[in-house]
Amino acid sequence: MRDGAELLAGARCPACGYVTATAHPRCPECYCPLEEAVFGPGGRVWASTVVRVPVPGRVPPYGLAYVDVDDGPRVLAHTGGDVPLAVGSRVRLAGLTAEGDVRVEPA
User: Fold this and answer.
1) Residue range 48-68: average pLDDT?
2) Alpha-carbon distance 43 to 60, whole Å?
3) Residues 79-82: contacts with CB within 8 Å, 24+ apart?
4) Is the dihedral of CA 53, 58, 60, 61 positive or negative?
5) What radius of gyration, in Å, describes the C-alpha atoms of the chain?
6) pLDDT, mean over the chain
């Protein structure tokens, strides 16, 4: 994440357009070198749920959503609520959780 408008740092393949939010030296699709890119700040919910089962390091309930970041990759993000976000709804990147996970909020 970057400060200010809350953009997601990642990479884009100049040859095939593959995008990723994780570090790769080469495109996993066509093996060309990747270029640094930023994505967001908006996105659309692809799927969402609320976790109500305790897991180490997390206190339930907490919301999770897969978000298709505008012009970028799909990322797993925390939603900060105990009600799932509607599929297709617009969200915006809202920084990181205390654990370093991507956080989104309704746009």
Assistant:
1) 94
2) 25
3) 79/48, 79/103, 79/104, 79/105, 80/105, 81/50, 82/50
4) negative
5) 15
6) 93
pLDDT band at 5 (very low <50, low <70, confident <90, very high): low
Sketch out the chain's domains with CATH numbers: 8-106 (2.40.50)
pTM reported for the whole predicted model: 0.89
Collapsed DSSP state (helix, strand, coil) of residue 21: coil
d(CA 97, CA 8): 14
- What is the spatial distance between Cα 19 and Cα 48, in angstroms, rounded to a whole number? 22
Ordered DSSP codes for 56-94: TTB-S-EEEEEEEETTS-EEEEE--SSSPPPTT-EEEEE
Task: Indicate the SS3 state at residue 23.
Answer: coil
pLDDT score of 99: 86
Cβ contact 44:67 at 8 Å: yes
**Residue that has been written with the tokens 């692809």 in this structure:** 46
